[in-house]
Design brief:
The complex is a heterodimer.
Chain A: E1 7-14, H1 19-22, H2 29-49, E2 53-58, E3 73-76, E4 80-83, H3 87-93, E5 98-101, H4 104-116, E6 122-124, H5 132-141, E7 149-154, H6 164-179, E8 186-192, H7 209-221, H8 224-227, H9 232-236, H10 246-255, E9 259-267, E10 272-279
Helix pairs in contact in A: 4-6, 6-10
Chain B: E1 15-18, H1 39-52, E2 56-59, H2 71-88, E3 94-97, H3 103-116, E4 120-123, H4 133-146, E5 151-155, H5 167-173, E6 179-183, H6 191-201, E7 207-208, H7 211-221, H8 223-226, E8 228-231, H9 239-249, H10 253-267, H11 276-281, H12 283-294, H13 313-337
Parallel strand pairs in B: 1-2, 1-8, 2-3, 3-4, 4-5, 5-6, 6-7
Helix pairs in contact in B: 1-2, 3-4, 4-5, 5-6, 7-10, 9-10, 10-13, 12-13
Classes of the chains: A alpha/beta, B alpha/beta.
GO molecular function (chain A): 3-carboxyethylcatechol 2,3-dioxygenase activity; ferrous iron binding; protocatechuate 4,5-dioxygenase activity
Domain Extradiol ring-cleavage dioxygenase class III enzyme subunit B (chain A): 11-270
Keywords (chain A): Dioxygenase, Oxidoreductase
């Protein structure tokens, strides 16, 4: 029997600040409960989708790349990934250090398909290690690390950043890549980063709820013209960490449907506007 | 093994560590220049910084021209700054750079520094070969064990040394009692890795931020973790930076927030905050341009091959704008907060 080609069966997005797992108790109990409940709901939906692989889109926090070599996009193709990168970071994030499985064949295909689609991501064949970028959301979304990952890095931390439209296009490319292979039949895309937050700046701890709620509104509407109209300067108003919403744009591009925001809570104790969302696939 | 240990520990490191350039005599930018260090100005510079209230001094990083001094010039300068500091205060923490291209040369220089009474060394790492984590760990372990009485401020400069310090190396550094601080690379983007690096070092020694990042770091982690900041801007006159220190120590949060905003505003035109790797090309001459223009000290020209004539004009212009802003905020801060006893500018 001929194998059918793969499909993106779901897409999810979430914030990933260290406090979500490292010091959850510092948040107001109601906010913590809302966020953790949303994560649980997303986890349940992912499990119900029974994915063969997860394309995990996050940002780099200078664990693997640095300012002298910071790709706009990178695709990793390993069989496994260490995270958190050290035991000490594991204690800090309250995530036990372990190996996350990788879907190397889908990763390799994704990279080659990207090149054929006029994207030129960096190829990371080994050595990519995780910090809170993946470890924090996946503690909630896949606590047993049972789904093999294709990690994708988007520069959302240091200018110049890829445009939001380019990120969305990258997501659309991901869907076409999934549909052009048979190794992984059922694929879930998870984008993680943002929302408003300032990192290493005097504004740290502030939340721009106006920006966050406006962004959520655009995300829920599925209106691409509104979602893709952001300039870098407009995102800057929500902090240098807000540029991580590019990961959400990649996830949105992979499904091109409205999302349901399962929770949004401004949590100064976690230094981040914290949200979890699921695509209406 | 020697039982000798440094006179200071990481827990002792508090306040502002000044990073001044190496003063140069006229003609120091010539290829055939010899004995280029302006020792008289070096002595005046060290006395001024100490009397005006900085808490420690480190020389001979990148802007301190570790890479462009001859060995004899370096020895003369090191001797001058250490003897001057000792004459001001026998316990003043004075760190002199000893970064070279290999372990053995660095050890030789560290022994020289120990012999002349330096508190410690500001130490980058050999950069000719790609220094992956195991090599870096062994380098710092070797030099610490070879000269155990000398404290080490680890110098983190992503441009000069080709990347960040891997987190596995921080695990080694906390095991070495000689390591008392890390001069952490500046820039807001480092905030993304700061907390994870600090998870390794905790209270063993401070990961010193640049003064413009100090307030948010202090707010988040407190004096126990980030009690010391580094500042090359102090070479333009330390008063604004010391005002920030005093506000932090005294819990005057709104003053500290305002001072940080003013310092950041003053730095806005300076290329380092906009494009660190572009800055890194002209780091040495740009620092000298701004320091000379500020008028607090006379550090002369930078030495070959990193001379001022190759700096693009736009960087000259924006650096001067930065200097003007710094002069403006110095006056604003004086008018608003006055001079604390620790900031009386007793010029030498």
């Amino acid at each position: 029997m001929a194998q059918t080609t793969g499909r993106v069966v779901g897409a999810f997005t979430a914030s990933h600040s260290p406090g979500i797992t490292g010091w959850p108790e510092r948040a107001e109990p109601a906010k913590r409960a809302a966020v953790e409940s949303a994560f649980a709901e997303a986890r349940s939906r992912i499990d119900a989708l029974a994915p063969d692989a997860v394309v995990a889109v996050s940002v780099e926090h200078f664990t693997n790349f640095h300012l002298g070599n910071l790709p706009a996009f990178a695709v990793a193709t390993s069989d496994s990934y260490l995270g958190p990168v050290t035991k000490e970071m594991g204690e800090f994030l309250n995530v036990a250090q372990h190996q996350y499985p990788g879907h190397s064949r889908l990763g390799r295909h994704m990279y080659e398909f990207a090149l054929e689609s006029d994207f030129d991501p960096a190829l990371v064949e080994g050595g990519l290690e995780f910090d809170e970028n993946f470890c924090v959301p996946f503690k909630h979304l896949d606590p047993e690390s049972k789904y093999p990952l294709v990690p994708i890095i988007v520069n959302g931390v240091n200018p110049p950043w890829p445009t939001v439209r380019r990120c969305h296009d990258f997501g659309r490319m991901i869907r076409r890549a999934v549909e052009a292979q048979t190794e992984a039949q059922r694929v879930v895309v998870i984008g993680t980063g943002g929302l408003s937050h300032w990192v290493g700046l005097p504004e740290s701890g502030q939340i721009n709820t106006e920006f966050d709620r406006d962004f959520i509104g655009r995300f829920e509407s599925g209106d691409e013209s509104r979602l893709l109209s952001y300039t870098a300067e407009e995102i800057d108003a929500a902090g240098n960490g807000a540029h991580e919403i590019r990961t959400w744009l990649v996830a949105a591009g992979s499904v091109q449907v409205p999302f349901d925001v399962l929770a949004y809570e401004p949590v100064p104790e976690w230094l981040t506007g914290t949200a979890v969302a699921a695509a209406r696939v | 093994m020697s039982s000798k240990l440094p006179k200071v520990t990481g827990r002792d490191m508090r306040g502002v560590m000044a990073y001044p350039p190496t003063p140069a005599l006229p003609g120091a930018d010539r290829v055939d220049a010899e004995n280029t260090v302006n020792l008289a100005e070096s002595e005046r510079m060290i006395r001024s910084l100490i009397r005006d209230g900085v808490d420690a001094i480190a020389t001979n990083g990148t802007l301190g021209e570790m890479g462009t001094l001859t060995l004899e010039e370096w020895k003369a300068y090191a001797t001058c700054v250490v003897e001057t500091a000792r004459s001001e205060d026998p316990d003043f923490p004075i760190f002199v750079g000893a970064t070279t291209l290999n372990t053995r040369d660095t050890i030789a220089r560290m022994r020289f520094l120990a012999d002349i009474g330096a508190t410690g060394t500001l130490l980058g790492r050999p950069m000719w070969g790609d220094m992956v984590a195991p090599i870096m760990e062994r380098f710092y372990r070797h030099v610490a064990e070879a000269v155990p009485e000398l404290a080490i401020v680890v110098y983190d400069n992503t441009a000069a040394f080709g990347g960040v310090i891997p987190r596995s190396v921080y695990r080694t550094l906390v095991e070495l009692p000689q390591v008392v601080a890390v001069k952490y690379a500046g820039g807001a983007s480092v905030g993304f890795r700061y907390h994870n690096d600090m998870a390794h070092t905790r209270t063993s020694f401070p990961l010193m931020p640049i003064e413009t990042d100090w307030f948010p770091a202090w707010e988040m982690y407190g004096e126990e973790l980030v009690g010391m900041a580094w500042s090359s801007t102090t070479a333009m006159g330390p008063a604004p930076v010391l005002a920030l220190r005093d506000a932090l120590r005294e819990g005057r949060t709104e003053d500290a927030r305002w001072l940080t905003e003013r310092l950041r505003w003053a730095h806005e035109p300076f290329i380092v905050g906009q494009d660190f790797f572009e800055f890194a090309k002209y780091n040495i001459p740009l620092e000298k341009i701004r320091v000379n223009a500020a008028g607090y000290m006379d550090v002369g020209k930078s030495r070959v091959p990193y001379t001022e004539d190759l700096v693009p004009e736009v960087h000259h212009r924006t650096t001067m704008e930065h200097v003007e802003r710094y002069k403006q905020i110095t006056a604003e801060i004086e008018a608003k907060l006055g001079s604390s006893s620790s900031r009386n500018a007793e010029r030498v």
